[in-house]
Design brief:
- This protein is globular.
- It is of the alpha/beta class and 517 residues long.
- Helices cover 34% and strands 25% of the residues.
- The protein contains 19 helices and 24 strands.
Length: 517
């Protein structure tokens, strides 16, 4: 790159219980998009947090606009124009969108908040990221996760921005929202803003970035023009080995049904859905965002109450009244939620404690947790899941996203449930970790378990599933066998439930979205 860098990083390292970054040297230039990628646990988020002032480096130096740069906090970094949109949403759900956008600078008049000015400023900020249709007075808790992510992005674009770090910004966005984000990134580039774009989606990196920096095991292994690499070469740099686009789930026996759902319904969400899952089978659930995929899993798990319908579980099948998650677990049903941070983990607690959740009978005696049993459970699952950690006592919040997901899955593996419901199990997980989890799913099916997998990635479903059921507008439109599906047929079924464009746009969270294909 020509010109002077806006940020220079020299010899940056970070050590917690063990080194997570070592001798990283990198420069960032005005108006460029630098892709930052690597496996989960490679050090991407740690490096970004150092730049954004969230954590200090253990070694090394940084300069910002030719001046020494040692931010003591995120607030100090933001005052200088260094912003970071993190994977973890930093919004207050009980406040409105407008209040979240301008929480640190609410417009006032005579000591009172000027609601009219606040709404006007919020509409301008929201328009930049395509949220024009949302009322600024909407509570953040009433928005879907994708729209919340766009609000978080809009918040960080307010004011003077010299460096913008985006950590997996599209993990929860629809195709339309991704396009709007990329348009905004191009505008920021034209203004000379330097952007660090963290993602595992290599097709996005090639589309949006000029250079790519690859971290592996805390060390920088490449920082060059992204045009020099094809996808296979980038994957090899990230994981240190070649990965094919094929997964061998091993020899399996698909047996009798272990889950049957009959005419399950919840008003406005799911309508008369019926299907079966057999022992040793992976059933994929596909559909557009808003089609009812997550809602269907929550009904089966008892997290939401169904208006009608029946659930049968076991071998042989027996009708099961599932009115709560506790009942679902007692009957052998597990749910691996898409929101692992909000619903699946206690981030401040240790790996030991998180794995013990849901397994208290195995680790407690007379109501008291036995430390030795808890530790043995943790060590067993850390080894089985290949969880990268300094020790079983490390707080889960310090782990990478992929390793956090492995903790969630490991908890349910210890419980030995017969039916496992996976909601976006590989969202935000790097390619190498994805294949680890695919292999794990294969092992579960070889044990005779029935798996239901919801995913927005059609390629993923087509890679791992035996059958794919397609939801559209809350209805199950069609179920395809492996030798009968294609991307075109799956997409056609996904749109079939919407009779008109007006009906689609009338949803509170628009289902007019595309898959990742």
């Amino acid at each position: 790159m020509s010109g002077r860098p806006v940020l220079s990083i020299t010899g940056i390292g970070k050590t917690y219980a063990q080194p997570v970054l070592a001798e990283v040297n990198l420069e960032l230039y005005p108006g460029e998009v630098l892709a930052l990628t690597g496996e989960n646990g490679a050090g991407k988020s740690t490096l970004s947090k150092i730049i954004a002032g969230l954590t200090p480096p253990t070694t090394g130096q940084m300069t910002f606009l030719d001046q020494p740069y040692t931010p003591g906090s995120r607030t100090q970094a933001e005052r200088l124009g260094v912003r970071m949109v993190m994977q973890e949403l930093n919004l207050l759900p009980t406040l409105t969108v407008a209040e979240n956008l301008f929480l640190d600078n609410l417009p006032s008049r005579g000591g009172w908040i000027s609601r009219s000015r606040l709404r006007e400023q919020a509409r301008l900020a929201m328009a930049q990221v395509g949220l024009d249709a949302i009322d600024p007075d909407t509570l953040v808790s009433d928005l879907g996760v994708g729209h919340q992510q766009m609000v978080e992005i809009a918040r960080n674009l307010i004011g003077d921005c010299r460096i913008l770090i985006l950590d997996e910004p599209t993990a929860m966005l629809t195709a339309r929202e991704v396009d709007l984000l990329f348009e905004q990134i191009e505008r920021l580039q034209a203004r000379g803003v330097a952007i660090v774009y963290i993602s595992h989606r290599l097709e996005e990196l090639k589309r949006i970035s000029q250079r790519i920096a690859v971290l592996r095991d805390g060390r920088l292994v490449a920082a060059e023009s992204i045009s020099r690499y094809n996808t296979d070469q980038l994957v090899a740099l990230m994981v240190g080995r070649d990965l094919g686009e094929h997964i061998d789930l091993g020899e399996r026996h698909i047996g009798a049904p272990v889950l049957r759902v009959e005419k399950l319904s919840r008003a406005g969400k799911v309508c008369d859905v019926s299907f079966e899952v057999r022992a040793g089978e992976i059933l994929g659930i596909s559909g557009l965002i808003g089609a009812g995929r997550t809602e269907l899993l929550r009904l089966i798990y008892g997290a939401d109450r169904a208006d009608s319908g029946r659930v049968f579980v076991g071998n042989p099948l027996r009708e099961t009244k599932v009115s709560s998650p506790a009942e679902a677990v007692r009957n052998g049903i597990a749910l691996i939620t898409e929101d692992r941070k909000g619903e699946g983990l206690l981030l401040t607690q240790s790996i030991c404690a998180n794995l013990a959740l849901g397994n208290m009978p195995a680790v407690a005696r007379h109501g008291v947790v036995q430390s030795s049993s808890e530790l043995a459970l943790a060590e067993r699952q850390i080894k089985a899941m290949r969880i990268r950690s300094s020790s079983p006592h490390q707080p889960v919040g310090e782990l990478s996203g992929g390793n956090q997901q492995k903790v969630v899955i490991g908890r349910w593996l210890e419980r030995d449930c017969q039916v496992l419901l996976f909601d976006e199990p590989t969202r935000g997980i790097d390619i190498g970790a994805k294949f680890d989890i695919y292999g794990l799913l294969g092992e579960l099916t070889r044990q005779g378990k029935g798996l239901v997998v919801v995913s927005s990635d059609l390629r993923e479903l087509m890679l791992i599933c035996d059958r794919i059921a397609v939801l559209s507008a809350g209805r199950l439109m069609e179920t395809f066998d492996r030798n009968d599906w294609s991307q075109d047929r799956l997409l056609a079924a996904a749109f079939a439930g919407y009779s008109s464009r007006e009906a689609m746009l009338g949803e509170a969270v628009s289902p007019l979205q595309e898959f990742s294909v």
